[in-house]
């Protein structure tokens, strides 16, 4: 568990791990330079349970922290957890038993139940995650969801073999890792809701929607390059370049335009993206002659988002086509 300013939900997350029926584990927690009350909470729990190995240091970011934690782990099986979610008490037992019975699987997640900032149940968003490796490959082909990151339990050796988390894929480091692991091992999910996944406006996926969608689209493109037997030009990047640079990065024309189209049509559902730099990306997609089907509904959506000026600009761009 990497923690950064997580005091609001941290105690619940920690207690849900310490209460696991499978109790033989070390609990690695790294505080990534929190400026709130997280450190005091972590130090209190570390004093009360010897299974907790606590690291306190300055802020270096989530991906650096995750790779440090993987390197520190002493067990052959590692489990991810976020500081704002809640494990079911038998989560570790169920997932460990699955990996023990299925040596061909290197990663297993689970279905999750969405909750809000107050812990109240939320209606599910989209379909449940695929369960078998074959279903996972089909989901990759159609651009579907794969594994909920804080629900994942993994064999440490395959994560290290894949090179761990890649620095370039901020806010979608998990998707990039799953796509790289899919060629090394089997991936799956247990069709039980072993995790309560919290959704609230302040969470990272809400605040960085545009960057997350760009990274996700590039990770899927890199997967396709590898599957086609071509080299992956993102493999050694510390940061993804501007979107306009992807034709040069991948060595062929049309990559940027295709990426922009995929990204733009996903961002139209996000108020944060449409209120930020995702809107300019959408306008550029239209200017480039990209797909516009359904975008008049986005005009209405922008008005409902409280963005009437952007609704008008989008309408003008569509009429100009």
From TrEMBL:
Q: Which SUPFAM superfamilies match?
A: Nucleotide-diphospho-sugar transferases (SSF53448)
Traced from the root, the source organism's taxonomic lineage reads: Bacteria, Pseudomonadati, Pseudomonadota, Alphaproteobacteria, Sphingomonadales
Concerning InterPro entries, the annotation shows: Glyco_trans_2-like, Glycosyltransf_2, Nucleotide-diphossugar_trans
| UniProt KW Acetylation keyword | no
Give the superkingdom in one word.
Bacteria
In Swiss-Prot or TrEMBL terms, this protein is called Glycosyltransferase
> Which intervals hold domain Glycosyltransferase 2-like?
1-159
Q: Which GO terms describe its molecular function?
A: glycosyltransferase activity
Q: What EC number is given for this enzyme? A: 2.4.-.-
The enzyme's first-digit EC class, named in words, is: transferase
User: What family does this chain come from, according to its entry?
Assistant: Belongs to the glycosyltransferase 2 family.
Record Pfam families: Glycos_transf_2 (PF00535)
**What are the alphabetically sorted keywords of the record?**
Glycosyltransferase, Transferase
């Amino acid at each position: 568990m990497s923690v950064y300013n997580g005091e609001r939900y941290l105690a619940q997350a920690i207690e849900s791990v310490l209460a696991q029926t499978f109790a033989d584990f070390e609990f690695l927690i790294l505080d990534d330079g929190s400026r709130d009350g997280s450190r005091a909470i972590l130090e209190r729990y570390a004093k009360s349970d010897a299974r907790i190995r606590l690291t306190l240091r300055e802020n270096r970011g989530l991906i650096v922290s995750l790779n440090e934690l993987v390197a520190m782990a002493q067990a052959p099986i590692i489990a991810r957890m976020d500081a704002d979610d809640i494990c079911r008490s038998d989560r570790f037992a169920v997932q460990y038993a699955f990996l023990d019975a299925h040596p061909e699987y290197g990663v297993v997640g689970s279905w999750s139940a969405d909750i809000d900032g107050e812990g109240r149940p939320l209606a599910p968003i989209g379909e449940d995650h695929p369960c078998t490796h074959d279903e996972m490959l089909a989901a990759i082909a159609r651009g579907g969801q794969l594994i909920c990151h804080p629900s994942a339990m993994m064999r440490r050796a395959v994560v290290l073999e894949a090179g761990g988390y890649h620095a370039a894929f901020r806010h979608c480091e998990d998707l990039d890792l799953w796509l790289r692991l899919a060629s090394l091992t089997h991936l799956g999910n247990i069709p039980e809701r072993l995790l309560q996944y919290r959704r609230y406006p302040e969470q990272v996926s809400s605040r960085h929607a545009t960057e997350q969608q760009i990274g996700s689209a590039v990770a899927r493109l890199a997967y396709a390059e590898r599957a086609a037997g071509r080299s992956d030009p993102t493999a050694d990047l510390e940061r993804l370049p501007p979107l306009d640079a992807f034709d040069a990065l991948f060595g062929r024309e049309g990559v940027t335009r295709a990426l922009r189209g995929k990204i733009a049509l996903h961002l139209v559902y996000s108020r944060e993206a449409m209120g930020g730099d995702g809107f300019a990306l959408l306008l550029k997609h239209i200017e480039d002659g990209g797909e516009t089907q359904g975008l008049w509904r986005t005009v209405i959506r922008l008005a409902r988002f409280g963005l009437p000026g952007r609704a008008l600009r989008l309408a003008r761009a569509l009429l100009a086509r």
